[in-house]
C-alpha cells in the first residue's frame, strides 16, 4: 500500500514537471521567463491603418457616415483652392442632403507650418466639434489631424506631441473625435496614417507628429477627385508614392531597430521594414511603374489616375507602419529652406518646393548609398521600375537603381537636381543641419550615415542628369 502511494506521488511530481507552462494552461505566470526589453532591438511589429472605402462617387456617402456616427457639430477642413472645386462640392452636397450641421475652415496652408497648424487648432477648440472631415491633399488631412488632437487635449502645449528632438514626443493617450479623410491627391497616403507633417519656421525645418492615435477613422478614396489634378501636381504626388514604397521596402528591418520599447504604447509608428508592409510597398511600386507616366501625361486616363489613387493608399499602409528614411529625412530642410522657387501648377502666394519633388530629387544618390545593405531589395526595385537585371551583379544594385530612377525622372521632365530649384554647394551645411534632427526617419536607413555622408549625398543631388 505504502509503495503504491509513493509510486503515485512520484508520478504526480513527474507530471507537474512536464506540464505545459504557457499562460493558457499554467497557474503561475511568473514561471514564464520575461524577455529583457531595455537596450536591445525590438522583436515585434504591429499594423495600424484607417478603415478605407474605395469607389467612384463614394463621397456621396459621407453624410450618412456622419449620421451613423451621431455627429451633431462637424468641422469641414479644406484649402482656398479646393473650396471651389468638385471634391468639396460633392462633400457639401452630401452634408446638405443628410442635414449634417457643419462649419467650414478653408484656411489650410499648402505645405503647412507650425503657425498654420495653430490657427486651425484655435478654430477647432472654439468650435467644440464632435467630428471632423478633411477634404484635400496631405496638407489638409495633416492639419485636420493636428486640430483634432489638440482640441481633444486642450491643456497640452503644442510641442508636447511634436516629434523629438524638436518636441517632447509624448504618447497620445486622450480619446480623439472621429475624422473622415477624403484625399484629392494621389501621394501622401495621409488618409491611412497617424502622421502629420509641418514646417517649423523657427528652425526652418520640417517635423511632425507621429502617433497611431491620430490616424483618420475612415479614408474615402474616390478616384473622381483625381480628375481635376493638374499635371505637375499628379507628378509630384506620384513621386511621393514612389519614395514611400522604395524607402519602406529598403528600411532597416523592424527587428534591428532599437531600443525595444518597455511598453507597447511607446512602440513608434515607424517601426522598420516588416513582412506585411513589404507586401503593400511592392504592390504600390508596381502600380507606380505601370501607371504614373500615363496619369501625368493624360488627364483623361481614368484607369491610370484611379490606380495611382489606390497606390497612394497602398504605399501609405506600407510606410505608415514601416517608415521612411533618408529621402524623406533630407527632404525636410529642402522644403524648409526654400528660397524663391515656385512650381508650375501650384496656385500659392509663397515660395514652395512640393513635398514629392523635395523627396525624389535625392533618391538616386540615396539608394546608391543604401544599397550596400540588402542590395537584393534595391535590385528588385530597379527591375520593377523597368531595369533589365538579367546580367546584373549584386554589388552594382545601388548604381542600377540610381540610374533607373534618373531615367524615370528625366522622362517626366523633373527639375535637374537641387541646383535647379535654387540651391548651391554653399547651402549644403544648412541642409545637413536641417537633416540631423530628423532622427525618427534617418535612423531607419539601412545604412548609418555621418554628417560627411549627408554632405556627399546633398552634393551628389545638386545635378541629376
Summarize the structure.
It contains 16 helices and eight strands. With 465 residues, it is α/β, with parallel strands linked by helices. Strands 1-8-5-4-2-3 form a six-stranded parallel beta sheet, sandwiched between helices. Strands 6-7 form a two-stranded antiparallel sheet.
Question: What topology does this entry show?
Answer:
Elements: H1 2-18, E1 51-54, H2 62-68, E2 74-77, H3 86-97, E3 102-105, H4 114-127, E4 131-136, H5 138-152, E5 179-183, E6 195-200, E7 205-210, E8 218-221, H6 231-250, H7 275-297, H8 302-322, H9 326-336, H10 355-360, H11 363-370, H12 375-384, H13 397-411, H14 428-435, H15 439-442, H16 451-460
Parallel strand pairs: 1-8, 2-3, 2-4, 4-5, 5-8
Antiparallel strand pairs: 6-7
Describe the model:
Helices cover 43% and strands 8% of the residues. It has 465 residues and is of the alpha/beta class. The strands form two sheets. A six-stranded parallel beta sheet has the order 1-8-5-4-2-3, with helices on both faces. A two-stranded antiparallel ribbon has the order 6-7. Helix 3 (86-97) links the parallel strand 2 and strand 3. The longest helix has 23 residues, at 275-297.
Q: Which short descriptors sum up this protein?
A:
two-stranded antiparallel sheet, 43% helix, 16 helices, alpha/beta
Amino acid at each position: 500500500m505504502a509503495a503504491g502511494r509513493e509510486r503515485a506521488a512520484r508520478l504526480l511530481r513527474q507530471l507537474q514537471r512536464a506540464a505545459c507552462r504557457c499562460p493558457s494552461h499554467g497557474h503561475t505566470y511568473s514561471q514564464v521567463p520575461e524577455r529583457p526589453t531595455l537596450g536591445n532591438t525590438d522583436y515585434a511589429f504591429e499594423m495600424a491603418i484607417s478603415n478605407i472605402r474605395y469607389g467612384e462617387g463614394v463621397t456621396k456617402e459621407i453624410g450618412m457616415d456622419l449620421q451613423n456616427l451621431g455627429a451633431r457639430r462637424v468641422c469641414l477642413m479644406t484649402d482656398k483652392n479646393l473650396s471651389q472645386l468638385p471634391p468639396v462640392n460633392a462633400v457639401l452636397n452630401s452634408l446638405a442632403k443628410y442635414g449634417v450641421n457643419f462649419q467650414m475652415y478653408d484656411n489650410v496652408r499648402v505645405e503647412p507650418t507650425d503657425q498654420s497648424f495653430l490657427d486651425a487648432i484655435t478654430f477647432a477648440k472654439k468650435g467644440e466639434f464632435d467630428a471632423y472631415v478633411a477634404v484635400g491633399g496631405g496638407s489638409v488631412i495633416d492639419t485636420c489631424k493636428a486640430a483634432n488632437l489638440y482640441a481633444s487635449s486642450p491643456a497640452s502645449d503644442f510641442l508636447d506631441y511634436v516629434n523629438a528632438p524638436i518636441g517632447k514626443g509624448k504618447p497620445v493617450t486622450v480619446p480623439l473625435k472621429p475624422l473622415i479623410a477624403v484625399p484629392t491627391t494621389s501621394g501622401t497616403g495621409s488618409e491611412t496614417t497617424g502622421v502629420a507633417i509641418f514646417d517649423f519656421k523657427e528652425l526652418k525645418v520640417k517635423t511632425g507628429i507621429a502617433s497611431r492615435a491620430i490616424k483618420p477613422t475612415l479614408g474615402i478614396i474616390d478616384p473622381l477627385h483625381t480628375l481635376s489634378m493638374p499635371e505637375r501636381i499628379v507628378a509630384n504626388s506620384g513621386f511621393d508614392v514612389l519614395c514611400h514604397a522604395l524607402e519602406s521596402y529598403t528600411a532597416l528591418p523592424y527587428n534591428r531597430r532599437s531600443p525595444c520599447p518597455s511598453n507597447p504604447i511607446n512602440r513608434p509608428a515607424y517601426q522598420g521594414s516588416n513582412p506585411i508592409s513589404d507586401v503593400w510597398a511592392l504592390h504600390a511600386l508596381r502600380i507606380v511603374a505601370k501607371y504614373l507616366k500615363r496619369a501625368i501625361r493624360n488627364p483623361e486616363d481614368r484607369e491610370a489616375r484611379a490606380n495611382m489613387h489606390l497606390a497612394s493608399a497602398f504605399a501609405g499602409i506600407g510606410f505608415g507602419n514601416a517608415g521612411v528614411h533618408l529621402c524623406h529625412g533630407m527632404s525636410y530642410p529642402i522644403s524648409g529652406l526654400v528660397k524663391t522657387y515656385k512650381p508650375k501648377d501650384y496656385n500659392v502666394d509663397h515660395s514652395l518646393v512640393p513635398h514629392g519633388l523635395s523627396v525624389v530629387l535625392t533618391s538616386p544618390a540615396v539608394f546608391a548609398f543604401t544599397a550596400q545593405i540588402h542590395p537584393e531589395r534595391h535590385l528588385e526595385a530597379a527591375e520593377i521600375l523597368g531595369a533589365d537585371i538579367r546580367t546584373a551583379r549584386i554589388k552594382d544594385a545601388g548604381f542600377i537603381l540610381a540610374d533607373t530612377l534618373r531615367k524615370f525622372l528625366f522622362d517626366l521632365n523633373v527639375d535637374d537636381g537641387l541646383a535647379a530649384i535654387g540651391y548651391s554647394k554653399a547651402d549644403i551645411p544648412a541642409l545637413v543641419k536641417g537633416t540631423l534632427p530628423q532622427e525618427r526617419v534617418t535612423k531607419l536607413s539601412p545604412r548609418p550615415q555621418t554628417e560627411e555622408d549627408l554632405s556627399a549625398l546633398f552634393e551628389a543631388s545638386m545635378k541629376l542628369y
